[in-house]
Design brief:
There is one protein chain. By secondary structure, the protein is of the alpha+beta class. Helices cover about 50% and strands about 20% of the residues. The strands form 2 sheets. It has a 6-stranded antiparallel β-sheet. Helix 1 runs parallel beside helix 6.
């Protein structure tokens, strides 16, 4: 397998310090340039309402260039468009690379290949990353070797979109507040004026003079008009109170959304920090035991799992072995084998589908109840797959906060699992560690 670019660890630092999307793209482009100086990258902002790419951010002569773009995703082939919308990996346009490279503003090389990658934030497609490289006959392609760097760029871009969304929410909140307050002041002033007019007494006849019939009718008419004005004023005051209540509810919802987005941003920054840790560990750890313990600590600490284990593919066909564990029973030893298809880890390895159970008390006959690597509580068991090849399974349970794991936690483990699988493959961790551990019984 080709070596990972030496800039991965420094790229994580650069993306964490980037002030905007242009700086993040520059850092990614420099990482790609380490692989091939002729490769080109561009980032397109996607407008979901118009279903179009509206802005192109390119890289040339050491700086980012911003241009308008008016390209619709419907121009892409159906299968390619669906894969790009899912995000998370590059999609190769193969023989149609030259056609779509011109459409996306790439001028050279004429015989190169083009790959596209969707960038998602908050579950929605927000950008399109394009990588153009010269066509190769021998050796690994740049797009394959740049996958880890693109995953780090995804995290950085999600942080920028979260920040922009937060700023938009604050601006909307300020606009609504000013509008509601101004409307309240105007309506209150009008009501005070109408109530003051309603309290005024009608002009009567001169003292000692007997009012005639016409004066009496006029006084009665004015009294009725004033009563109607008071009734309308009271109705308007009631409507204004309802509008103020609705405005207060909007403010409360906006504050809740700001808090949620802030928490998501903190989680993203935490993930970038953890990825930086594991990349630094990969660069400096030469002992496979130290590396596997560091990888398990990465995912265990991030998910607050008091009990966790990392199982890797054993040299024997159809088996996994326990490579590292934390908080498991004393009789469970490293090197113990588990057959693929047996127990939670074995079934996850066989199906390559993650398992989430919120509470084993509600799991019925779930195989967890007889699995030696778990006890009770909420748990996640996640397969480690890299380029279609099964590398192992990571198991997490007994959350320190006592909260149950949810679907959002599975998505976080998916990202961490991708990095663990990448590092494990690059370091040949499963093969090296298996020679150091005893082959225990399943």
């Amino acid at each position: 397998m080709p070596a990972a670019p030496r800039t991965l660890a420094t790229l994580a630092h650069a993306l964490g310090a980037a002030a905007d999307r242009g700086a993040a793209l520059l850092a990614f482009a420099e990482s790609v340039a380490e692989l091939d100086r002729a490769a080109q990258v561009a980032l397109f902002q996607y407008d979901a309402r118009r279903e179009a790419l509206v802005e192109r951010l390119g890289y040339a002569d050491g700086r980012a260039e911003r241009d308008d773009a008016e390209t619709r995703l419907e121009h892409l082939p159906g299968a390619t468009r669906a894969a790009v919308a899912q995000g998370g990996r590059f999609v190769d346009l193969a023989d149609r690379s030259a056609e779509f490279a011109r459409l996306l503003g790439f001028n050279s090389p004429s015989d190169g290949t083009l790959a596209l990658r969707g960038v998602r934030a908050e579950g929605q497609l927000v950008a399109l990353l394009a990588l153009r490289e010269p066509r190769r006959i021998f050796g690994a392609r740049v797009v394959d070797r740049a996958e880890p760097a693109a995953a780090l760029l995804d995290l950085a871009l999600a942080r920028f979109w979260e920040r922009d969304a937060r700023g938009e929410a604050v601006a909307t909140l300020e606009t609504v507040t000013r509008r509601v307050h101004g409307d309240y002041v105007r309506r209150l002033a009008a009501l005070e004026a109408q109530l003051a007019a309603a309290r005024q007494q009608p002009a009567g006849a001169a003292p000692g003079a007997a009012p005639d019939a016409r004066d009496a009718v006029e006084a009665e008419r004015r009294s009725a008009q004033q009563a109607e004005a008071v009734r309308r004023a009271e109705r308007r005051a009631e409507l204004l109170e309802q509008q103020l209540g609705a405005g207060a509810q909007q403010l409360a919802q906006a504050q809740t959304e700001l808090a949620r987005r802030g928490e998501t941003l903190r989680q993203t920054e935490r993930t970038l920090y953890l990825l930086d840790r594991v990349l630094a560990l990969d660069a400096h750890a030469h002992d496979p035991r130290e590396l596997v313990d560091g990888l398990l600590a990465l995912v265990g600490d991030d998910m607050q799992a008091q009990r966790c284990s990392l199982m890797l593919r054993a040299p024997e066909p159809g088996q996994l072995y326990l490579a590292a564990a934390r908080g498991v029973a004393p009789h469970v030893v490293e090197g113990a084998r588990v057959r693929v298809g047996e127990g939670v880890a074995g079934r996850v390895a066989q199906s390559r589908t993650p398992v989430l159970v919120r509470d084993v008390r509600d799991a019925g006959a779930h195989p967890l109840l007889s699995d030696q690597y778990f006890t009770a509580g909420s748990f996640i068991s996640f397969p480690l797959v890299y380029h279609g090849e099964l590398l192992g399974v990571v198991n997490l349970t007994n959350r320190a906060t006592r909260d149950a794991y949810v679907e959002a936690d599975v998505e976080r483990v998916r990202l961490l699992g991708m990095v663990i699988a990448l590092v494990a493959t690059h370091a040949r961790l499963a093969e090296r560690l298996a020679t150091l551990l005893p082959a225990g019984a399943a």
